């Protein structure tokens, strides 16, 4: 039997993965759906072993998993997905979500946490911060977050099947270094390998030019709703935040095992700039809300000289009416006048900042009745001016 030329292409191009500590692994429906409907552990097992090996090495992984609709279809096979009403597909997603989480939980001793998001959750500033805080806390507790789009209430996203882009947004959300996208082909090819047997694998993409985007085609499977085009769109979003994207064949056990040894047989799409540079650029140029957080000299020195987070104890006042999640400036006022010190994303509204000013971080919950953490602005969300 002649070997698939795509397999040969992938085998010839073995790369070393970039160093990473935190990653998002996106798994599509084509890797989880069983032939007769429902979910199959056939390919999920190898991916779970990669996650376990990464966790054993001290790394953190968040899974973005499709497959809820496919799982629900097995429970109610009478519902025809082709041309079905959106409500029927949403019902399938609701039925299948528990099955999907159950599939992943069977592979891990640590708890698996279900996190359902929509793009609206990630566009809204307050929801964005809440989602990030939840995911970070789950990782801190040693749980494995499994994120899926909330298809039971999401209409536009369900029709688009946009989990590739959702995975990129989650990667930005948790400050990941790399986005792994498991697919059912070896990576990006210069032509569709299913219709062009001599198509060549592209092992590395340094820039997503129009010529590279032209290589992408539509959906490649009957159960998946995203194709290579959506994966390149996701890579573009991740790359703008300094995150590399890795495309690999999740059906090939040898390729998945190689990832656990930091070797890639697939396509690496390099980020446009470093992760730190991308985030600092965004923090420096994002629109600032009217108002400011006024700090004393000690807090200003801690921010500038020590790279510290902004704590409530060093805050003197809050100007304006900004909300939690807004970009605000940090200023120092003294006998010499007012000087801009920094800008960053406030974890608390102006009203709350006024109430906790000059307080210790441990007093926040007693004063407000709730807390979003001990930092008013975390150092990762702050850039010096």
UniProtKB/TrEMBL annotation:
Main localization of the protein described in the UniProt heading: cytoplasm
Reactions mediated catalytically: L-glutamate + ATP = L-glutamyl 5-phosphate + ADP
SUPFAM superfamilies with a match to the protein in the record: Carbamate kinase-like, PUA domain-like
CDD domains: AAK_G5K_ProB (cd04242), PUA_G5K (cd21157)
Protein EC: 2.7.2.11
Location of the PUA domain: 291-377
UniProt-listed InterPro entries: AceGlu_kinase-like_sf, Asp/Glu/Uridylate_kinase, G5K_ProB, Glu/AcGlu_kinase, Glu_5kinase, Glu_5kinase/COase_Synthase, Glutamate_5-kinase_CS, PUA
Gene3D superfamilies noted in UniProt: Acetylglutamate kinase-like (3.40.1160.10), PUA domain (2.30.130.10)
Any GO molecular function: glutamate 5-kinase activity
Protein name as catalogued: Glutamate 5-kinase
Annotated source species: Pseudoxanthomonas kaohsiungensis
Higher taxonomy: Bacteria, Pseudomonadati, Pseudomonadota, Gammaproteobacteria, Lysobacterales
């Amino acid at each position: 039997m002649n070997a698939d030329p795509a397999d040969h292409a992938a085998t010839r191009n073995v790369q070393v993965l970039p160093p990473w500590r935190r990653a998002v692994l996106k798994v599509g429906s084509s890797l989880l759906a069983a032939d007769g409907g429902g979910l199959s552990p056939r390919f999920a097992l190898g991916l779970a072993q990669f996650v376990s090996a990464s966790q054993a090495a001290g790394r953190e992984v968040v899974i973005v998993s499709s497959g809820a609709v496919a799982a629900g279809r097995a429970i109610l096979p009478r519902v025809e997905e082709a041309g079905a009403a959106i409500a029927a597909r949403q019902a399938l997603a609701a039925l299948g979500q528990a099955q999907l989480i159950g599939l992943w939980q069977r592979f891990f001793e640590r708890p698996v946490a279900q996190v359902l998001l929509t793009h609206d959750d990630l566009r809204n500033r307050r929801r964005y911060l809440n989602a990030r805080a939840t995911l970070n806390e789950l990782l801190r507790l040693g749980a494995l977050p499994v994120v899926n789009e909330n298809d039971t209430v999401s209409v536009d996203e369900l029709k688009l099947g946009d989990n590739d882009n959702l995975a990129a947004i989650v990667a930005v959300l948790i400050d990941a270094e790399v986005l792994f996208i498991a697919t059912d082909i070896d990576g990006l090819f210069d032509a569709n390998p299913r219709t062009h047997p001599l198509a060549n694998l592209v092992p590395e993409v340094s820039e997503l030019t129009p010529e590279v985007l032209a290589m992408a085609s539509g959906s490649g499977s009957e159960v998946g709703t995203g194709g290579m085009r959506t994966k390149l769109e996701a890579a573009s979003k991740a790359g703008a935040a300094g995150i590399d994207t890795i495309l690999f064949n999740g059906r090939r056990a040898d390729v998945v095992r190689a990832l656990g040894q930091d070797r890639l047989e697939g396509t690496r799409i390099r980020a446009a700039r470093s992760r730190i540079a991308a985030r600092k650029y965004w923090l420096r140029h994002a629109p600032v809300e009217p108002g400011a957080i006024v700090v004393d000299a000690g807090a200003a020195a801690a921010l500038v000289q020590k790279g510290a987070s902004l704590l409530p104890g060093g805050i003197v006042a809050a100007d304006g009416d900004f909300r939690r999640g807004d970009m605000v400036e940090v200023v120092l006022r003294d006998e010499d006048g007012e000087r801009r010190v920094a800008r960053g994303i406030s974890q608390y509204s102006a009203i709350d900042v006024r109430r906790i000013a000059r307080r210790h971080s441990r007093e926040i919950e007693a004063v407000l009745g709730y807390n979003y953490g001990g930092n008013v602005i975390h150092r990762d969300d702050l850039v010096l001016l």
